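anyone seen this seq b4? input:
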Amino acid sequence: AESNTPDASVTVAEDATSINLTASASDGDATNNAITYSMDDNNLFSINSQTGVISLTGSLDRESAASHNVTVHATSADGSVDSTTMTVNVTDVDEFDAEFNKREACGAVV
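predicted toks r here
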C-alpha cells in the first residue's frame, strides 16, 4: 500500500460536528489488492475502513488542544502497509458574549 495523502491537514472550528478529511492509498504492484484503512487509537476521530473517510466522534476544544495529529494506516490485501499523519487544526469559537458588570451607584448628596 502506498499513501496518496501525505501529511494532509484540515482546519475546523471547535464547535464543528464533522470534518472533511479522507485518507487515500493505492496498491502499487500489479495485483491492485484492496486497501483497508485503520488509525491509531483516538477518542476524537474514527475512520471508515473501506473508504478512508475520517469522522469526528468527539468534541473539539480549542482551549484544550489547538491541533490533533491523526495517524492513518493503509493496508493492502497482500500485507504491505503505509502510514501517514494528518493534522486537524482547531480554531477558537467565542463561547461567551462580553457584558458589562452592572453596578448601582450609591451615595449621598450633602
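The mean pLDDT is 84. The CA atoms of residues 48 and 54 lie 7 Å apart. kinda curious what u guys think
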